[in-house]
Amino acid sequence: MEKIRKNIGLLLLLTFAVTFAQEEQNVDAEEMIDNDVSEVKKDTTTVTKRMKLDGIAAVIGDYVILDSDIEKTLVDLRNQGASTEDVTHCQLLGKLMEDRLYAHQAVQDSLLVSDDQVNATSDRQIQQLVQQVGSMEKVLKFYKKPDIESFRAELFEINKLRILSEKMQTEITKEIEVTPEEVRQFFYKIPEEERPIFGAELEIAQIVKQPKAPEEEVQKIIDRLERIKQDVEENGSSFRIKAVLNTRDEPSRANGGFYTVTRSTPFVKEFKDVAFSLREGEISDPFETQYGYHIILVEKIRGREVDLRHILMIPEIPDSAMKEAAKELDEIRDQLLEGKYTFAEAAQNFSDEKETRNDGGVLRNPIDFGSRFELTKMDPALYNQIRDLKDNEISKPLREDDPRGGAPKFKIMKITNRYDEHKADFAKDYLKIQELALREKQYKAIKEWMDEHIEDTYIHVDVDNRGCDFTNNWVKQ
Q: Which residues make beta-bridge pairs with 198?
């Protein structure tokens, strides 16, 4: 049990690290492996020496892992602020080998990844990096790249491998669920002295007012979207170019509004409902979400995945509407302080946020959809909004800007419950325990998959790494 929990922890640490510089392949080494694959099988000693000369740590199917890949992964973990004190060279190599086995098998199983999907991911990463460090020049200097083209080319290879790997893992675990009885058995198998400690947690509620654009502004946006749709359908204009020129969704602008979406993609329900109602090549009518007004073009349907492009437009909201929203919240706050309503009643009656309105304004944690937020894992933006609030105190109206460039919203917030650090309790912490039980079951399924496919795949581990105590049987002993 303890080994499984450690393995899960390491897997999460390495999975969520952004390893931009991880996949720098040596072309000459790849050609050597391709040309001499029969020699590898016949004369292990000779080829091992040649691999060492080229700095090759391991080969998994069609993928080569260089010694430098391991070092770059460790550096990236540190740059992300992750603790690497207990992360070893062997663990990093084992994780890189796992990723490449997933990717190799994904290709064998025809789990396809489109270039547009990979490029869209790379564009979002580049935009985030530029926002963090201030300029593209600083990004290139940090990653020691001479120009944006070479950086994009490297990101493309990294992201393609990562997305293939994620697709394969999703395919392995997609049907796995845990029953309440399995959760109970999982929990009570853990000795009481080893049960996890959960940190201090908060329950938070909010009441939101969303400033509204005048009807004439909304109609202008709808008319523009309808003209774009008509131009594409009737004149053959490029939806991709229209998106680059018109969309307000900055993360997808550079790639022509492209996304690959599944039912589990964390987009709002209205967007996914429209996306999955369209046929290939069909363009939606303009529709509204909390971000603004959209049209969607479905390019490709692949089973449960949809490749699409969309254009987002946002009506202009006058300052008078924003002031009115803040004023309304001030009045609601005064009524709450006077005891005219409970916070839950006011949320149900006055909040514009339908996701929380019918739940008394209670925020849901996106990790497990429960109502508790662990302080040490809370989103920094949310933490900054509530950090100075005392229990049952109601904040003054706060402005929250939309990172996508949409209209801001205003809200008042309240901490409704506070839970001190405590040892796991089956009844109180059921959702967290359920998540741990599911992770363990998924880990076991992945381990079984690994054991099976390691046997069926060409794998070579450099002699210097064969002494590693790998979780998986990479050296096939």
A: 422
**pLDDT tens, residue by residue, 218-264:** 999 999 999 999 999 999 999 999 999 999 988 888 889 999 998 88
20 pLDDT higher than 60: no
pLDDT tens, 136-149?
888 888 888 898 88
Q: How confident is the model at residue 405 (pLDDT cuts 50, 70, 90)?
A: low
pLDDT at 76 over 50: yes
Contacts of 81 (CB under 8 A, 6+ apart): none
| Residue 469: C-alpha distances to residues 74, 90, 211, 234, 369 (Å) | 18, 7, 59, 63, 37
Lowest mean pLDDT among 8-22, 81-95, 238-252: 8-22
CB-based burial of residue 255 (10 Å sphere; 0-12 exposed, 13-18 middle, 19+ buried)?
Answer: buried
